Amino acid sequence: MSTGTPLSPLTGSPLSRRRLLGVGAAIAGAAVGSGVLSACGGSPRPTAASSSKSAPALVKPNGKVTLTLWTWAWPEAPADAELQKAFETAVPEVTLSVKKFPYPDYTTALRTGVPNGTAGDVLHLQTGSMIKQYAQYLAPLESYTAEAFGEDWRSQFLSGSVEEIEASKVGLVALPQQFSVGGVMFANNKLLSSVGGALPTSYDQYLALSPKLAPKNAVAASWGAKDDWPNTDYLVQFASQWSPGIVAKAEAGEASFADDAIVQAMKFMQRTLKDKLWNAAPFATTAFPDAYNLFFNGKAASASLGTWGVGALYEGSRLDDWGAFLWPTLPDANPDPWLPAANPEMASDTSKSPVRPWRTVNVATAMRSGLDPDKQWAAWQFVRWSCSKEGQQAGAKIYSPSRVDVKPEGLNERWNALYDWQNSLSKFAERREFDYPETRTAIQTAISACCVNNADPATELKRVDAAAERARTR
């Protein structure tokens, strides 16, 4: 399955590594591919005011309406037909036509199709730079949402999911269909116990795992640094140990990328390489799929997954063999006892100030503005259904739900508790996405310079400041 989102297909049936890694490879492109949007020109930058106009009244059509969805994030057979049928059964007035693109082709199609009005009636979008680019062409949804779900509609979605869409200050122009808490480390408990190890509660404990695992040709953690996009995830997380939200503030011009918190995070990334925590030469040899193959094949004790990786649990004995934990407190970081709930598996011995995870709306569902009345009605029905309990339950075998009242099927009691625990962290999670692709690219360049060539973090991060300022003001 290749949805292009950072989640594995959530299914009660066995899931192959090949299918999961296809998804991961797609998001590796998605995380950096959105840079094409702004780098190649495209539409003028939207403002919050451009999407704050009141939504037009909806009128139910007299006959059948054909609605077109543009997406890169639609399942393959047979799940594709099952999901489409579920929607058309719920809304029999609408026939859904799905146009699915490979992710790089999707970004290209959006660049021309959205501004000239030839794109789909409903669109799947990523938060951050993509949704910011096209917000001015999307219909405002708040009045529809309150009417459909009630005035308390925000409380029906996992904490952070709606906020993730609104973080780009473009108004509510989409609803979260898929939402994940990432950056939580999955662990191979069976492998750890085979060398007398356990889930680490300090960096020293984490580091001590590698020599124990070496005779098994395994390492403490796998990192697919060659693909670049996992690197910004780690920097965002590690910087939060010194100052939560600092990377997002720096992109907005409210702080500097050369802030001590980000500098310290970069220095810690350099340290982990010198300490040989990871697989050998991750920047030179290990792409995202390779890193997860190490973990899946028992050659790494841990890997960064989170709720988007739940689908991997359904293969073999992983529901029994795997666990989850947060990066323990980083050396020399400020005490920050933010953790709202103890890990069910580490209740008495968890790090008091672990590294915060990140959150992302894998897929936000939007409708274009300016549709004719019949299409407007049909488009809202698709957005509403996709984000309703009914629609989320239909998709819960395929993607990580965004609603509080829907969960993946097939988890055992232990992993149900771990899944709930991860979602309880979303309120405190770091924002993963960037409003400007130029910012992400500049950070990735800085990380490579520091981690591969041992460049000075402060010097490299000042260059990120310059790139972010150009992106904000151009």
TrEMBL record:
Keywords: Signal, Transport. InterPro entries: SBP, TAT_signal. Belongs to the bacterial solute-binding protein 1 family. This is Extracellular solute-binding protein.
